[in-house]
UniProtKB/TrEMBL annotation:
Name the record gives this protein: AMPK1_CBM domain-containing protein
Positions of the AMP-activated protein kinase glycogen-binding domain: 220-305
InterPro entries: AMPK1_CBM (IPR032640), Ig-like_fold (IPR013783), Ig_E-set (IPR014756)
Organism listed in the record: Chloropicon roscoffensis
Listed Low complexity bias regions: 69-87
Compositionally biased region (Basic and acidic residues): 38-58
Biased composition regions of type Basic residues, renumbered to the chain: 27-37
Region annotation (Disordered) ranges: 1-97
Database matches in CDD domains: E_set_AMPKbeta_like_N (cd02859)
One Pfam family per UniProt: AMPK1_CBM
Length: 305
């Protein structure tokens, strides 16, 4: 009896130990699961921080490119231990951008330079717009003048038509009377002289108007410059010395040698003052006539017939 009790108590103790061990194992598993959750949150926070840093770097790099600022130093990969960090600058902060490396004075100088360039471009654009406005006003005046001349020609044709009708009616009336009197012949001769004079005036007016229209029409003028340069433009009074006309080099020109720069300008017949802007410097064409003897203040003369 006592042996059976001892075996029972031993079995109970063994069962209790197994239950205790299983409970401890389950609690340990729950504890492990609880420890995994904070680690995952830390990783997500770190990834979010990396994303924000990368976006900030991209924004600053875009500002540096927009305002033509010096580039940021190349990022250093890997920390002291040789491990690769998720950040371009290593385990610490990311490298400073070009805006961070500039001092206030340098940044102000960069902003002032950008403002000066924008102001220069705006001034050139405004001058070109004013030139276009003046040219448009001249065109309007020419159109109004042509309209008045065409009105006068139309009136002359009306007079010719009326004279022709009177002449026809006079001839028909004379034929109806059946006579060939000297008075009728004189009337016909008078009407014919008037008709001839009107036709001559109309022909002269049409010739003048045709010449005037040809003078108001622009013609393509070929321009060429021979020399060693990288950029050549033709500037002149044809557009108020604003934009000019860009000349293109030969197709096989690689720079550094002699090449022919050519282009085509649409100009009306007239006299223009022009000058070549070669790599930012003003130059005259020696073969062309000039407006003066001083090569600095004088310009070339371009005559368009």
């Amino acid at each position: 009896m006592q042996g059976w009790l001892r075996r029972g108590s031993a079995a109970g103790a063994s069962t209790s130990r197994r239950d205790t061990s299983a409970g401890a194992s389950r609690r340990g598993g729950r504890a492990k699961k609880k420890t995994k959750t904070p680690a995952r949150e830390d990783v997500l926070k770190e990834l979010e921080s990396v994303r924000k840093e990368v976006e900030e770097q991209r924004r600053r790099r875009g500002l540096a490119l927009k305002y033509d600022l010096p580039a940021a130093p190349a990022p250093h990969h890997g920390g002291p231990s040789g491990s690769i960090s998720p950040l371009p600058g290593g385990p610490g902060k990311p490298p400073k951008s070009a805006l961070d490396l500039l001092s206030k004075e340098e940044l102000y100088a960069q902003v002032a330079e950008v403002r000066r360039q924008l102001s220069t471009r705006l001034s050139d654009t405004n001058r070109y717009v004013r030139h276009l406005e003046v040219d448009l006003l001249k065109r309007d005046e020419e159109i109004a003048s042509h309209h008045d001349k065409l009105g006068a020609i139309e009136e002359g044709f009306g007079h010719v038509l009326r004279t022709t009708r009177e002449l026809r009616e006079g001839v028909l009336a004379q034929l109806d009377r059946g006579g060939d009197s000297g008075e009728g012949r004189a009337l016909v001769d008078d009407r014919l002289r008037i008709l001839e004079s009107c036709v001559e005036d109309l022909a002269k007016a049409l010739a003048d108007e045709s010449e005037s229209l040809s003078l108001s029409r622009k013609k393509p003028i070929s321009i060429s410059w021979l020399g060693s340069a990288q950029d050549v433009k033709l500037m002149g009074s044809f557009d108020g010395w604003t934009n000019g006309e860009q000349l293109s080099p030969d197709h096989d020109y690689a720079g550094g040698g002699i090449a022919e720069f050519s282009g085509e300008v649409l100009l009306r017949p007239g006299v223009y003052e022009v000058k070549f802007l070669v790599d930012g410097r003003w130059q005259l064409m020696p073969e062309w006539p000039t407006s003066g003897s001083d090569p600095v203040s004088s310009n070339n003369i371009l005559v368009v017939e």
